[in-house]
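U., I forgot to send this yesterday:
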Amino acid sequence: MEIECLDFSQDEFIQRFNGREKDVLSFYEDLSYDAESLKEVWERPAHPHTEALADIIEEEMARYGLSGAQRENLERLRQGSRVVIGGQQAGLFMSPSYIVHKIITLLVMVEEVRESHGYEAVPVFWIAGEDHDFDEVNHTHVYDQAHRRRRKIAYKPNLTVPMSLGFYKYDRGDMKATLDAVVEECGDSGFLRSRKAAIMEMIDTHEYWTELFHALVHDVFSEEGLIIFNAHSSAVRRLEVPMFKEMVERHDEIDQAFRSGQAAFGAACSLPPMIETDTNVHLFTGSEENRTLLVHDADGFATDKGVFSKDELLARLEEAPETFSNNVVTRPLMQEMLFNTLIFAGGGAEVKYWGELHEAFRKMEVPMPIVVKRMEIIHEDMRLRKLMDKYDLEVSHRLHEDVERKKKELLDDATDASFLKEVDDMQARLESDYDAVEASSERTHRHLIEANLKAHRKQFDYLKRRYQLEVRRTLRHQLNDLEEVAERILPGGSLQERIYHPWMFPGIDPSTLSYTTQLTIIKGV
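Result:
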């Protein structure tokens, strides 16, 4: 296995952020991934509820079978050690691959912080079980090698799920059928050969969408000591009651700080708004039936159960905290109010979200952690490498353009230009003859001549099209090779990790990687 790192990001802001430019860092409390910032954040006092939070997480994780490394990290968490944290929605069978890469980022950074700085941080992966965007998580993509094309596989593609995913009970039969479809395309991997039966058992053992996702993540990363946090846990919601209460009480302050901070961030960084929301409360209420974004006006708080006064809303919070959840504005605040965070690792959009929220953090007197961009990883197996060497291609933003250029060169070289010229000359001579006939004919006959000429033109066009098709057929293998390279590395112009299922690729040993803001290319497996 060979690892190569490549400058790849075309996002100007992310380039500036990764370069830790001073005017950008000012929106992130001037913190960097360096010794000085690590020391500053590590020495912050721990939250008083830290032990209770660790107890809840341990109880939630115990049903999946705790590894020794997880027990050690839970004890570190209980004692106030800071966390390296990231989160994601519960994608179908851990798809797409960047979910796994986000977790690997956490593990790589924890190891680096320990080895280089002596801090025993704890890796925490946050499952966003309160999310309700089912269309984002109900499917995956695989590369169909037999037909050399991308294939979408979905669980109940026509199903609408209005509630939080943490409330959704999947259909075991349909889930197993979906697993079979994914494994059919990815089944050559050693992981699937050895784990398919275990995954089937997980489907039978669990009921809820996020439980199955948790079980799959646990199966892969338990020995790495990963702490898996279910944000939708009823016990966690009970612990969060004082935090939700403060957010309700101060919703105007949070909203105003968010909007002014967003405007300042956008103006300074030349960015359009990333967070778009019409609410002024930035919380959801909901149950097993639906999830509704709270809005406050002169009449009170509009909820999923009608309009509530503030006292009524707070009473509901005390009675049923599991029906409350955060939106994109308050979720980062809740994370930092819950956890003692050293580093938050997020995607490019998340990094921008946090910059837009800097004033809300300050208003709530919640200090930001160090914010970093998660690692981006793609796999380049031996087949891909051979194809890329054969056609002199490299991973770059121009890959699709380079592939189209190579295809054109192949077609141009294989095309007999003299043949096409002779066909054009034949058509020109025939049209000249028709012009002469038309000029000497009666006006009443000209429509017949024009119709006949039109038919001949169609035949000439057909001849040229058929010839070009035959040329393409003789090059079908080479053209398919080129299209495979583009489709497997940058499907639809997106990084491979954003589209394809992780089971398409071999597992990654985090100890072989170092944290980098460059694109990591894993070759040769």
